[in-house]
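2.7 Reproducibility. Because tokenized structures are sensitive to small changes in the input, we list the exact sequence used for Prenyltransferase, including any N-terminal residues retained from the expression construct. No trimming or masking was applied before prediction.
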Amino acid sequence: MKLLKQIFDFYLNSSLHVSLAASSLVLMTYYFAKLPTDLTVVFFVFFGTLTSYNVIKYGTFVIGNKKIKIAMKAILLLTLFAAITSFFLFFKLQLAGQITAVIFAFLSLLYLIPIPISKTNLRNLAGVKIYIVSFCWAGVTLLIPLLNADTPIEFDILFKFLQRFVLTLILILIFEINDLKYDDIRLKTVPQTIGIRNTKFLVYLLLVVFYALEFFKSNLYPNQWIVNLILVFITFLFCFFASDRKSKYYTLFWVESIPILWYLLILIF
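Resulting structure tokens (single pass, no recycling of outputs):
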């Protein structure tokens, strides 16, 4: 059991799970756009997500730290492999895909590098982080696959972008509820600012927006309203039972599984 827990912890801490979630959204993009799946883009997003998340999480911790545990060394090796792989895959993308990837990579870089005006990075900039992360997730999982395939940006894509943005925002808010006891008060997260109860009400409102956006699309899929209704209900339950007393697995595994579940529901229906 101890070995299984160590493997599971490595799976979560190395960002493999969140990278799988991002890849699931890319696969959804190809499905809804009726495009053949480009595995180059899928793996680029997977390894790029893994690299950026681990650099953001562990970059400052590793620098100058001489005593690094074996598990962390394994994560660093995996991150190095992911960085090299995503670097080579980048040059297999089309020019439009490369430009889009560079834009979002730059936004990710601002998480670590202080902005001259505010003298802080986006990660510590109060009230901004959640919107930047949501914007990046929507852009990376939707715009990179479409622009790389020379697909014109139409109104349907705009609504899909907003839907991805809202869903990511919802998941981050659930994360912030769970992490309330760990977050620095200076971060001014939404639960710190308006409280857990009001944050949950905000999530419920955003779930309505997420579901309603589906009906603004001109290309409606027969069972999509059922799929999204199931997803909204499950996400509602995750938010309803969220609290700062839950373990890290509640968000790191279960909540981050929601994009994967969304794609699986589409395959099932």
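The mean pLDDT is 89.
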